[in-house]
Amino acid sequence: MLIGKFQTVKNFIEIYKNKNKKSLIKCCILTDKKDFNYFNELKIPCFDYDKKFFEILNYHFIGQIWYEIDEGKDIVKDIKLEDLLKLPFDIKLFLNSYNKNLINSYTDKFNFASTSERRKDYIFYSLNNSKFIGIPLFVKFVLDKIFSIIIILITSPILLISIVLILIEDGYPFIFTQIRTGWDGRKFKIYKLRTLKKINPDRTQQVSANDSRLLFFGKFIRRFSIDELLQIYNVLKGDMSLVGPRPHMIEHSKKYSSIIKNFLTRHKCNPGITGWAQVHGFRGATNEELMKKRMDYDIWYLKNWSLSLDFLIMIKTVYAILKYRAN
Prior knowledge:
The protein is of the alpha/beta class. 40% of the residues lie in helices and 15% in strands.
């Protein structure tokens, strides 16, 4: 998404075209026009800033937001930019001249590392950048597939026994699905073994200790996280990773993003079956205080991610399952 003046948007659409003559800019917000019906001229959707960003960006599968700033503008007081930085997207500020003091004041305020580069007579400043790019991300992607196949082969007897026990106790279906929040806030369907009785249709109500809805065998399955094994399919599909912030229900993402600042920034990578928060005991039921602590661990993971950290988390996961299984 490009946010800027009409002429700038028009120029960039022409400059940033791929080999198929399609613009890399999927949609825009015009900052100098009151009438936003410019689709016929720009050939991309145009929105008012008052529209809901999250829904727009999710629908258009946006990976970055480019935001034009005026020379001399006090962006420290820029409410629009402050709102954008709460979303799980990379932000690039751009202007047509170098202004070191401008960018330094902003990164000091929000504690975001930044880099600058010159493109097409513009200076771009990168804020809120994700570490999940390039060769390390590709290696993570490949290792996810390899380890997923190994895990499913090793655990398949346990998985098959669990499926049989569910069928004996409560019949079909043995799979539970739910819509969760993924990378960049995009929705995906998560798969688990069903551990609750079919009598309760509420899919959004979290399971509590001694929950009456639990199947007899479901208690054991959940205690050792056997129900999570089906998420290997999500990893193989590319919706999830073995390691990353746990995906939440859409309802929880909406709820906690409204009360916890920068909550949605935890969605700057693929969600994981296990994560840094989970190996420190922050798993299962949620409330505002626990979710804030879980988010802090997730943000730390995003800022410090490496392949070696992923390996450490995977090793700690086995210990965490045994240590925190009572919860």
